[in-house]
Amino acid sequence: MEFSRVKSLVHKEFLLDWKEKNSIASILIYVTSTVFVCYLSFQTIIDTTTFNALLWIIILFTSVNTITKSFVQESENRLLYMYSLANPQEIIMGKLIYNSILLLIISLVTFSAYALFLGNPILDLPGFIGALVLGSVGLSILLTVMAAIASKSSNNPALMAILSFPIIIPFLITIIALSLNFSQGVNDAQNFRYFFAIGGIMAIGITMAYILFPYLWRD
Amino acid sequence: MGKNWWKILGVVLVSYSIVGGFLVPVPELPILNETIRNTYFHIPMWFAMMALLSYSLFHSIKFLAGFDLQHDNKADQSVQVALVLGLFGLLTGMVWAQYTWGSFWTNDVKLNGTAISMLTYLAYIILRGSIEDEHRKAKVAAVYNIFAWVMMILFIMVIPRLNDSLHPGNGGNPAFGSYDMDNTMRIVFYPAVIGWILIGAWITSIKIRIKNIDDTQKYA
Question: ipTM of the predicted structure?
């Protein structure tokens, strides 16, 4: 695995999305309109449990919609060309890094819009942003692998959601518990255990992606 | 006879655990009372399910190592049998929960973890159904199976330790831990576990053979 090639793969992803700006724009409009629907139905949320649950559900659905495309959008021919230039580990690492950055931007935008419309009850903001960063990186790791698996089937559009939701849940409930602690200003030993679990799941996800993607990338 | 002794052993052990489970005296504990006998039926289901899922994982790895479709068949059939055993485990657990905790479903990490694991393996079956090409199906399913197994271990091993559970041995819950199960209970419990694992293996082996016959007829 060469890092220069991973770098140029990430660069390629950025160029692709920059060329077709409407895919990024459509995600941002998706987020904004979802947040606006929440605003119209809730007006304001004071309860931190509801605030967190709703925010993470929005982020979950947005990220599933975003990452599903990452293996489907490219044509078979271009994939074939790419596979002759780089090895599978480099390709999956490039995808992981790019999706993490993309999801990070999306979740920060989501949170800003959400806090702007629905009010901001968060007590420990830096900690909460940290949880948001961890959460979006972790989600992108797990969802990228699931997208690679789901892209192998062409006739089932719901497959991505069916495959990824059960896999995502342990990660998601831990990250929700962590961000709930931060939004209530609780900073105790429990948070450390959550960090440990989240780090563990992320490490396992990266390792498995690295080992298993070579079996998935071409038939 | 020589090849089939474990099938006979499985039937004998399960019959023994059914008879013994209802007749052998059990410790008298508050709240649990006679429902403690469910130990002989509820917990062996999970052991048998875990054994079959691990067997399935083993064959998924073997498939990725050599791309022999026979391994894929074994992995697929054992997941199906494991799902049925998991469903029985869930049902016996729900009945037990109704009589001890007061409702069929409580917001307990182990219950939710099991439900999620079963959803994961149902997704495995949906995934297999939605890919036509045999080799591609086998490869993708093997990768997902490895992922699903690792995540299930996370549900069972890691997440319950972050939260309290109503189950024995978690969160300072009395009921019975391993120390409460007395020796008469062990005499029935361990044979029940081994018996149900053997029965699960037997059903799986029959299903594998049926699938093989189907395939030879299809491609003949």
Answer: 0.87
